[in-house]
Amino acid sequence: MTDGRELNDAIRELPRSIDPPADLWPEIAAAIDRRARSRRRAATVGVLAAAAAVSLFVAIDRGRDRAHNLDARWAAGIERAAMPTAAPTLMPPTAEPAPALADLIPGEAQLRLAANELSGAYDRRRPLLDRELLAVYEENLGIVDAAIDRSRAALVERPDDPHLQRVLDRAYHHKLSLLRRASSRETTR
Amino acid sequence: MSGSCSVAIALAVFALALSTTAFAAPPPVEPPVRTKPAPADVVVEVELGEVDLEVEGWAKAKIEVDEDIAAGWTARLEKDGDRFVVRIDGPPGIPTGGTLKLRVPKGAELLITARTGDVRGVNLHGRAAVASISGDVEISGPATRVEVATTSGEVRLDGANGRVDVETVSGNLALSRIKGELRAQSVSGDIEIGKAQLDRLQLMTVSGDVEVAGELRKGPHGIDTNSGDVRVTLPRNLALRILVSSFSGEINDGFAEPPSRHRGSYRRDLGKGGGTLEISMFSGDVTLAPRAPG
Q1: What are the pLDDT digits (tens) for B55-74?
Q2: How many CB pairs under 8 A join A and B?
Q3: Interchain proximity A133–B134, CB inside 8 Å
Q4: Do B101 and B156 sit in the same domain of this protein?
Q5: Is the reported ipTM for this assembly greater than 0.90?
């Protein structure tokens, strides 16, 4: 009985709370800091992801608007097609590297590069096209490629002929314009 | 007794009311809005898909939609901000066909998208922009701005007075009585221009043939083709300098007395002080012909 009372007294004298030992605190503080930073990072990533998603949807939406605006498309002209656009440059190269050809007109390498990138986009689009539409694009791409080939062949013989240079340049621009149309969701769905 | 009678009457009234409600005709389904007042220069957007469109410009300040569409589909006219949108609604996955008939103020601006549906517009005085895949497009009236882009559809325009831009892959273009500026491009589609009065003409094809008949003023005008043939028919009294460059094609000059044939580069001056028409090609033949009297 006496032992029990003494035990109770001893318990009552125990402190209600104690501070952690000073040497443990740096680890806990570091852990809290790490978790807080992790949460901030996660929040930042989330915000960035959300912003990216919004930007993507806005871009898609604007793309649809642009597709509807034929005026802008015409104003852009086939000349714009010569410039690699943002979307194709994000795509991995799909075509085998062609043997290097000497430029017969200024910027021919860039025209070929743009055509290769658009061809990659078209190749990915092809399985989704119905047979008739695919036939139209295949036939006309063949026509344009033949025009490029014969214009190039003539230009090899007469490399300084400005008329042939213009003919070849036009043929490339026809190809870019056609590939842009053939690889566009708006004009093939 | 009187208490139980009252309860019975109350129950009977309640049951009657309940049955009346249960068997009453369902509330009428509001039909899609088919007519709306609209300003003269209203913008109307039409999404066609496989359905054909007949659109007519009229003098009334309103839009009216009528339809003959199969398989439970229907057309709906909605206001979206400042513009009106005509949509075809129906069960998904079920193909549809038929014709949508639309009347708009004749100065309206039309923005039309189609896949296989044909578009036929008459008496259009404003702007008409049509994006199609394989549907044919036919537009008449003094539209101030016409823009058509199609892959394989045929395009026929008549009477536009302003600026016309047409782009196709394999569809043929027949453009008549166009006044103002005209730009057209195709890969294999032929381009035929008749009775034109143009301040500026720009045509480009790869293998498509080109025929131009009319008056070419001011300029500069240009015709580019790789292997297509070109025929230009002009009035004898027109003032125009024609410059032709061809790698391997033949140049036939019907203005010369007697008519002559040439290769390479060639120049023909008609009158003095006019514009310039430059024809550039690789292997196609060129024919310059005077318009027949009358």
Answers
A1: 999 999 999 999 888 767 88
A2: 96
A3: yes
A4: yes
A5: no
